[in-house]
Specification:
With about 100 residues, this protein is of the alpha+beta class. The protein has one domain: 2-Layer Sandwich (Conserved Hypothetical Protein Mth637, Chain: A). The protein has 2 helices and 5 strands, in the order E-E-E-H-E-E-H. The longest helix has 14 residues.
């Protein structure tokens, strides 16, 4: 059976720089340069999470929060502990 996990995200669209900012309660705060128009920010979130985790974008799916700053993505192929460690490793300390 393939592992999968869900990540809670707090998204800031329209940022100057995209990246993982750090923890935001029980979620991860991320910034994306894309504006929240016609799904552009949602697509940018999926791409950012895939890059941060070192996985293919097709393994990351937005499952909740399509029109909200609070989103949940599901990642195939990684356990929760692997996902948390990888997100922490790319967290921007200067953000």
């Amino acid at each position: 059976m393939v592992a999968s996990t869900r990540l809670r995200l707090r998204v800031v669209p329209g940022a100057v720089n995209s990246g993982v900012v750090g923890r935001y309660g029980d979620a991860w705060k991320v910034r994306v340069a894309a504006a929240p128009e016609r799904g552009a920010a949602n697509a940018a979130v999926v791409d950012l999470v895939a890059r941060a985790l070192g996985v293919q974008p097709r393994t990351v799916r937005l499952v909740s929060g399509f029109g909200s700053r609070d989103k949940i993505v599901e990642v195939d192929g990684l356990r929760a502990d692997e996902t948390e460690a990888r997100m922490a490793s790319v967290e921007r300390k200067d953000a």
